[in-house]
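Supplementary Text 2. Reproducibility record for the structural model of the 242-residue chain.

All settings were left at their defaults, and a single model was retained for analysis rather than an ensemble. We include the record here because the model underlies the residue-level annotations in Supplementary Table 4.
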Amino acid sequence: MNLIIDQGNTTTKVALFCREEPECVMTVAEPDEQLIDTLFDKYQVTSCIYSSVVDVPFHLLDYLQKRIAQFCFFNSDTLLPIKIEYGTPETLGRDRIAGVVGAFYERPQSDILIIDAGTAITYDLLLKQGTFVGGNIAPGIRMRLKALNHFTGKLPLVEKTGDYPLMGNDTETAIRAGVMQGILFEVKGYMQALKVIYPDLLIFLTGGDAFLLAERLKTPIFVDKNIVLKGLNRILHYNVEK
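Retained model, structure tokens:
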């Protein structure tokens, strides 16, 4: 069984895979030795991959390496089943790569736009030859709401859930609509512009806010909240086999 640890900016996802689909997925504030011990006591873990977009405690990495022989810390030297054509691959977020790899195995031989709506919203383009050509990074929903509150004198901090018409009719809905409708127009704009170049483009939507956006997008998309975890599992398989 494969143990997948995906440490993000705000939380960490931990998953266990036997094959291509996760058997167990949990979200924790931060992984530690106690969590690892609990998982190893409950499951027969044979391989593990650790991916992070923040600094990882060295003692935790050392602990994992001691507990399991087939351990992979996902970095710029990790072997990949896709080709990266990015100017600074060493600075490319591991979560972005994993999402692309996950989509690549879900829909091989396809041009794909992977939209990951989390703390930040990333837009990544994978061509059907298995080549990642690049993407963009924008503030996520919560970040935009916090920014309006932080950088103004009187605008309140508004929750992302709730009503948002096309045009707000009070301060709360004006803020929420400004953020949510703005993101929807942003997403649709990328999709429309890229489909001019790649007519058969497929869209994958993932991340913590994926379903919040998907319900308002009137277009065929694949919503998969586990696409990054699936990609990390594929990367782990690829490196173990090598």
